[in-house]
Specification:
This protein folds into two domains: about 70 residues, K homology (KH) domain (GMP Synthetase, Chain A, domain 3, 2-Layer Sandwich), CATH 3.30.300; about 70 residues, R3H-like domain (Ribosomal Protein S8, Chain: A, domain 1, 2-Layer Sandwich). It is built from six helices and six strands; from the N terminus they run H-E-E-H-H-E-H-E-H-E-E-H. The strands form two sheets. It has a three-stranded mixed sheet with strand order 1-2-3, sandwiched between helices. A three-stranded antiparallel sheet has the order 4-6-5.
């Protein structure tokens, strides 16, 4: 019998000592998000979101084991992930402004796959710029490319 993802998260949180935490399901541009609300989420989030990434991984593996399918969802704690996403979108807009003003490509620092997905999505519909992920492993990063020919292809 499959347990709902919310139940899996609540059970894990209880074992970890987070008895006052609540979990709700919502959706954003990345898909389904399970939002954890707790009085103190610092340890759940960890440094630079490392513990949150690990929690995401563990819950997805449990779901995969129970259902046989890969879990296509994310977990957020006290809005941390949404704030990070907004910061990434701001970074994308600043990079695009720089690429346009210099009419030259710009390479971003290496980042995880989720962060790259947010950057790619933020830039996807912008005229005269494109993105590409390059590199391998921990060195994988985004190159924002100046593409004036993309502007002429846009229908207004």
């Amino acid at each position: 019998m499959e347990r709902p993802v919310t139940t899996i998260i609540e059970e894990l949180l209880s074992v970890m000592g987070y008895t006052e935490a609540s979990v709700s399901m919502m959706s954003d541009e990345t898909g389904v998000v399970y939002a954890i609300h707790t009085n103190d989420g610092r340890q759940l989030i960890g440094r630079d979101g490392a513990n949150l990434a690990a929690l995401n991984h563990i819950v997805k593996r449990i779901v995969e084991q129970e259902t046989g399918t890969y879990g296509r969802f994310g977990i957020d704690v006290n809005g941390y992930q949404e704030e990070r996403n907004e910061s990434l979108r701001r970074q994308a807009r600043m990079i695009v402004d720089r690429v346009r003003s210099l009419a030259a490509d710009s390479e971003l620092e290496p980042m995880d796959g989720y962060a790259r997905m947010i950057i790619h999505a933020a830039i996807a519909d912008m005229a005269d710029v494109t993105t590409e992920s390059v590199g391998r492993g921990h060195e994988r990063h985004i190159v924002v490319k100046y593409s004036p020919e993309k502007r002429s292809d846009m229908s207004f």
